[in-house]
Design a protein that fits this description.
Blueprint (H helix, E strand, L loop, with lengths): L10 H8 L3 H23 L4 H17 L1 H14 L3 E5 L2 H15 L3 E4 L3 H6 L1 H7 L3 E4 L2 H8 L16 H15 L11 H18 L2 E4 L3 E3 L4 E6 L3 H7 L3 E7 L3 E2 L2 H15 L7 E6 L9 E7 L3 H5 L15 H5 L1 H6 L10 H12 L4 H5 L9 H5 L6 H14 L3 H18 L1 H13 L11 H8 L11 H9 L1
Parallel strand pairs: 1-10, 2-3, 2-4, 4-7, 5-8, 7-10
Antiparallel strand pairs: 5-6, 6-9
Helix pairs in contact: 2-12, 3-12, 9-10, 16-19
The structure holds iron/sulfur cluster.
Length: 474
């Protein structure tokens, strides 16, 4: 993955700071509770939701098992339809390809459809270095870009901002990027949307190059699919002369029939809609209609490594609906920035450490950013067992060592020895019971001390259980 979020502190520190921001917490609580309630109602409308969920899981698992076959099929279909397929093993290679393609058009600006993949590889920053301006056109992404901010939610990247903050950002920043915000702009949603519409419209009409991601790629026909709510995606996908789509290799599905399943589960899980307002599909190029050049950049960037992990690979089923974020008690309090990745929340806690590896402090901390309550698994429309993967990744992190884990390992080893020697255990229990008045309420040291900052150590009983048992039951 890219270095977009490098420099962020590990999750415990970032979350510690974030929970003290009362505005952020209020914004998040309001937004996540509203979306989660609406989602629950939208899902309850379908009698066959459980079957759809199982079908989605099986389609994704089948496709991942035969990814090599379907990718080749997709490439052949895209090429036959007039597109050009490029393969990128990592973020740098993908950025180099896209930068070259834009430069070849002679243009120095592009319009973008909201795309997690391009955020993952840090494409905007790479284009900027090459002197190419990338304009985000999704409303929430526009707010993030104008605010020199980072996205904090998969579906609603500016979820941490309220209306007043958005009005201030528009008023201050829009003029630096193009058409300024109207005089006397208020924070009513209609006025804010109109300001964004006017600002973006001139960019849509001027842009010769569009960059998108895709929610799905249909291998059988080489068709790409973007689902969205605002119509900005449709503008980016149809108006420019050149379209470049940057997509993770796991977004492939075999046939249109498979798409039918996800077009039912994705909108209900993400925006709680029966059907999203805009579903755009395109297959290569068409003479005199839409972009006349189409490039598909397929990125690996850690996905094949993830696929090799028998437990962790289920994370690649994710359709980025964000339902798991909206029900997560940790996300609700810490917010998306604390995860130090473009993928926040429960899915981020299992996806980022797999795509990026667990070598950095921040990635090693992510599998612990969960209470393991399981709410994420319950709502996931492709049944990703996020708690199972979290525990699996914790095991990996513990195996790789680190000061905290060395202490933990030593403690477990010592406990194992004591439990193996009943005489020593009984003697230790007696000593502990007799000295119980002297025991501290908190444990010393940074790791154990942190644990008892918010918990009291249980008091030792006056008499060890084994002694009591001997006296009363034998
Ligand atoms: S893990 Fe499941 S619930 Fe979370 S974003 Fe992905 S598909 Fe949606």
């Amino acid at each position: 993955m890219s270095g977009t979020f490098v420099g962020m502190p590990a999750f415990p520190k970032a979350a510690h700071d974030a929970v003290r921001n009362t505005t952020l917490r209020a914004n998040l609580k309001h937004a996540t509770h509203t979306i989660r309630d609406k989602r629950a109602r939208a899902v309850a409308e379908l009698d066959d939701w459980a079957l759809l969920r199982e079908a989605g899981k099986q389609i994704k698992d089948h496709t991942l098992r035969h990814l090599d076959t379907y990718l080749v099929q997709l490439e052949e279909a895209v090429t036959a339809a007039g597109g050009i397929v490029h393969w990128a093993s990592d973020a740098d290679e993908a950025n180099r390809i896209v930068t070259r393609l834009v430069k070849e058009t002679g243009e120095s600006e592009v319009v973008k459809v909201k795309s997690m993949a391009t955020q993952e590889i840090g494409l905007n920053e790479a284009l900027e270095e090459a002197g190419i301006a990338a304009y985000e056109t999704d409303l929430a992404e526009l707010i993030v870009q104008l605010g020199h901010d980072r996205p904090s939610h998969i579906l609603v990247p500016a979820i941490h901002r309220n209306r007043g903050e958005i009005r201030d950002i528009f008023t201050k920043e829009m003029g630096q990027w193009g058409r300024p915000a109207p005089e006397g702009l208020t924070d009513t949603p209609a006025e804010l949307a109109e300001a964004a519409r006017l600002h973006l419209r001139e960019k849509f009409l001027r842009a010769k190059v569009g960059i998108s991601g895709a929610n799905f790629m249909v291998a059988a026909t080489g068709t790409l699919v973007v689902v969205e709510s605002e119509g900005n995606g449709r503008m980016c996908l149809t108006l420019p002369e050149t379209l470049i789509s940057v997509v993770g290799i796991e977004k492939i599905i075999p046939t249109w029939r498979d798409l039918e399943v996800f077009l039912q589960t994705l909108p209900r899980s993400s925006t709680a809609e029966r059907m999203n307002p805009y579903t755009s599909m395109w297959t290569g190029t068409t003479d005199t209609d839409g972009p006349q050049a189409f490039h598909l950049v397929l990125i690996d960037n850690g996905r094949t490594d993830t696929l090799a992990d028998e437990v962790g690979r289920q994370a690649l089923r994710c359709i980025r609906c964000s339902a798991c974020l909206n029900v997560c008690p940790v996300y609700e309090r810490a917010g998306g920035h604390a995860y130090g990745s473009v993928y926040p929340g429960p899915i981020g806690a299992i996806l980022s450490p797999q795509l990026r590896g667990t070598a950095s402090e921040i990635d090693a901390s992510l599998p612990y950013a969960s209470s393991l309550c399981g709410a994420c698994y319950e709502v996931c429309p492709v049944a990703i067992d996020i708690p199972e993967v979290l525990v699996h990744l914790r095991e990996k992190v513990a195996d790789q060592g680190g000061p905290g884990h060395r202490m933990e390992k030593a403690a477990i080893k010592a406990a194992g020895w004591v439990l193996d020697h009943p005489g020593a255990l009984a003697a230790g229990e007696r000593v502990a019971s007799r000295t119980r008045k002297l025991h501290p309420k908190k444990l010393p040291g940074p790791g154990a001390g942190q644990w008892t900052n918010s918990r009291d150590l249980p008091q030792m009983p006056a008499e060890p259980f084994r002694d009591w048992w001997k006296k009363n039951r034998t």
